[in-house]
Design brief:
By secondary structure, the chain is an alpha+beta fold. It folds into 2 domains: 273 residues, Beta-lactamase (3-Layer(aba) Sandwich), CATH 3.40.710.10; 127 residues, Beta-lactamase (3-Layer(aba) Sandwich), CATH 3.40.710. Helices cover 28% and strands 15% of the residues. The protein contains 13 helices and 16 strands. It has a 7-stranded antiparallel beta sheet, with helices on both faces. Strands 7-6-16 form a 3-stranded mixed beta sheet, with no helix packed on it. Strands 3-8 form a two-stranded antiparallel ribbon. The protein starts with a helix and ends in a 9-residue tail after the last helix. The model has no long low-confidence stretch (mean pLDDT 94).
């Protein structure tokens, strides 16, 4: 259950917000998205200095009209990626692995990968161009040369779709996943471009091999347990199916289509593959605690998850020459805006607020999930936001940037330098 203290609201005015302007968020979501059927449901939690100042929930948990509940379980999809990245960096802190280590040191199946050299889509691909070894830093930064089938651009993407690499919960074990992946070429030489990909799934398998634990078990022991994130995992606890929200698919010009009913979802069966890139299910209260830890430079309520300097490194821009994603991304789809945003070790971050064309702080970092969920952490202003809904894909509506605009327009006490 969501703990009451996690959703209890502090005095928003005392924390620098205009309460009337914060209230615009509820009207916006209710009237602009939920009442008109664009989104089936929504929850939002805004906090400053770790203290919630605004919480709202709208819509229904399921298509049968079941009311939304504070402890609803959501598919957080790619919001799993920052968790996996933090887990890997914990192992870096223990000197079990280094960012510049070749991935093949831990995953020998990925040794000797070449770059796709064109031609037909049949497997095996030939010829391929030799490439430098794939490193762990390439996985964390999405500069690996790996891809997602959903990019729908190349023959390599098509091969990913055939092997169901994007959504492999029930199709592969961890070992099978990397074994099959190692038989496909890269789209480009590691370090030479940026493409949103299955790289964080590979990183999750590396965490398993380095730790000797399944990824979900590692998360529970080293992240979720210490943070009190009692409702987040790759599997749904027995008797909790009634908390899982239905998932819907966007249809242009039509009402969303029900794509996964919570009460009989395939997610109720144990996951064969713990997808470090997109497999977690959790609550808004839990992810708020994860964000509060990030805002606290790796610590929350006495639980130290990662060192401040490690988190500083993770939220630095690793793109070549300090570029933004608009300059180097090869993706047709990612969970990031491009202009003014850099990318680090598992997070996108704002490097030029003016280029984003919306109110933001330099150094603010964020990510989202395929079902339109999102979060951001603003260390300058001390603000965090978590947004939950269940509409695929996340590119259907600009709700994320609209919510950011509403939040910053309610902030009256800015800590940024003039």
């Amino acid at each position: 259950m969501a703990r009451g203290s996690d959703l209890a609201l502090a005095d928003s005015a005392a924390l620098g917000f205009d309460p009337a302007r914060l209230a615009r968020i509820d009207a916006f979501l209710r009237e602009g998205y939920v009442a008109n059927g664009k989104l089936p449901c929504a929850q939002i939690l805004v906090a400053r200095d770790g203290q919630p100042v605004h919480f709202g929930q709208f819509g229904t948990l399921r298509a049968d009209g079941t009311a939304m509940r504070e402890d609803a379980l959501f598919r957080i999809a790619s919001m799993t990626k920052p968790v996996t990245s933090v887990a890997f960096m914990q192992l870096v802190e223990k000197a079990k692995v280094a960012l510049d280590d070749p991935v093949s040191r831990v995953l020998p199946e990925l040794a000797g990968l070449g770059v796709y050299a064109g031609g037909g889509g049949a497997v095996p691909f030939a010829p391929v161009t030799p490439a430098r070894p794939l490193r762990f830093v390439d996985l964390l930064t999405h500069m690996s040369g790996l891809t997602y089938g959903l990019q729908n651009r190349t023959s390599v993407d098509a091969a990913y779709r055939e092997r169901e690499f994007d959504f492999g919960r029930e199709h592969h074990s961890s070992d099978e996943y990397v074994e099959k992946l190692g038989k496909l070429p890269l789209e480009f030489e590691p370090g030479t471009g940026w493409n949103y990909s299955v790289a964080t799934d590979v990183l999750g398998v590396a965490v398993e091999r380095l730790s000797g634990m399944r990824l979900g078990e590692y998360f529970r022991e080293h992240i979720f347990g210490p943070l009190g994130m009692v409702d987040t995992g790759f599997d749904i606890a027995a008797g909790q199916a009634d908390r899982l929200a239905d998932a819907w698919g966007y249809q242009p010009g039509q009402a969303p289509k029900l794509v996964d009913r919570g009460v009989d979802s395939k997610l109720l069966a144990p996951a064969r593959f713990h997808s470090g890139g997109g497999g977690l299910i959790g609550t808004i209260a839990d992810y708020h605690r994860f964000c509060a830890m990030l805002l606290g430079k790796g610590e929350l309520d006495g639980a130290r998850i990662i060192a401040p300097k490690t988190l500083e490194l993770m939220t630095s821009n690793f793109l070549p020459g300090g570029a933004d994603l608009a300059s180097v991304s090869r993706s047709l789809f990612s969970e990031s805006t491009s202009a003014g945003s850099g990318f680090g070790l598992g997070f996108a971050m704002v490097i030029d607020p003016a280029r984003t064309l919306m109110a933001a702080s330099e150094g603010e970092f964020y990510w989202g999930g395929a079902y339109s969920t999102a979060f951001f952490v603003d260390p300058v202003e001390g603000i965090t936001m978590v947004f939950m809904t269940q509409l695929y894909p996340s590119s259907a509506y600009p709700v994320r940037r609209q919510l950011k605009t509403l939040i910053y327009s309610a902030l009256m006490d800015s800590r940024a330098r003039a």
